[in-house]
């Protein structure tokens, strides 16, 4: 059986193929975005999630539920229309911390292992090269840019000039910081440069724990703890971030309640990851986590590394350096098309990486509680103030 009315245009080619195959199916608002009682989000253009017909209560009748293969067919069809509007440009790798859980500077990330095949990532790019990459992104249609470092962004010597350049090109800016070097004057500058969102990585509200997992410099801790309120004062949305580790796992609720009381814009609680054999692994991996092709929430989070290597998600950035993936050589459009085509190729390297990746998240569940929207999946829990 089939529901024909109100079918979005982007799904009609797929449904016609299903009809030719004499496939029995039923698509409704209740089953299109639900699989095994989890809510789904497809990547396929803004009109897909915004259309009123696309709404789910997460309680699809089992009689009409879509199979895993059906969901994958829909996800792959909609990916054809996906075009990112956000991009992460990584400019530097230096950091003033050596957090043990860090994917770049933590345990096991020495010159003899992680950077052995990734030496090109360990560099600082010039202003002119940064401008060149920004021009490429603007031409492609990117309007939101994360100006990032593999360490602390304020240690990049040209962060102000590059931020100004991107903002003058019409881009909204965001970044991630450990907060240790930020003063009120720097926050004012960031607001004037067009920064709209900043994540502050904290992992605790206790100095004793902070000294174990981040830095034992008390002035760093105090600046980092003060930064979220300074950002809100100057109109920058703030996310405070907590990575669950053995040293702080009992502090998660205390961290959450503290920042809820401060009325920050969002709070994220993530699991710890490490890199092994070019794959991101989850320290607390769920055994048998289901892989549904085309649905990973990380896919499309475009990243260009200091050496120019460009990837379609944060998980792939841990692969070894490849001359074939330089942004200047292949362009934004080709990076995206190549990634989507690889997603459809049964024996592609991308699929093999996705199958092993601890950051693969096919679905998230949402609820509203006490003025907060809570989004939870296998990798993290995010609280967003309403």
TrEMBL record:
<keyword id="KW-0479">Metal-binding</keyword>
<dbReference type="GO" id="GO:0046872">
    <property type="term" value="F:metal ion binding"/>
</dbReference>
<dbReference type="InterPro" id="IPR050377">
    <property type="entry name" value="Radical_SAM_PqqE_MftC-like"/>
</dbReference>
<protein>
    <recommendedName>
        <fullName>Radical SAM core domain-containing protein</fullName>
    </recommendedName>
</protein>
<keyword id="KW-0408">Iron</keyword>
<dbReference type="InterPro" id="IPR013785">
    <property type="entry name" value="Aldolase_TIM"/>
</dbReference>
<dbReference type="InterPro" id="IPR058240">
    <property type="entry name" value="rSAM_sf"/>
</dbReference>
<dbReference type="Pfam" id="PF04055">
    <property type="entry name" value="Radical_SAM"/>
</dbReference>
<dbReference type="GO" id="GO:0051536">
    <property type="term" value="F:iron-sulfur cluster binding"/>
</dbReference>
<keyword id="KW-0411">Iron-sulfur</keyword>
<dbReference type="InterPro" id="IPR007197">
    <property type="entry name" value="rSAM"/>
</dbReference>
<keyword id="KW-0949">S-adenosyl-L-methionine</keyword>
<dbReference type="GO" id="GO:0003824">
    <property type="term" value="F:catalytic activity"/>
</dbReference>
<feature type="domain" description="Radical SAM core">
    <location>
        <begin position="80"/>
        <end position="306"/>
    </location>
</feature>
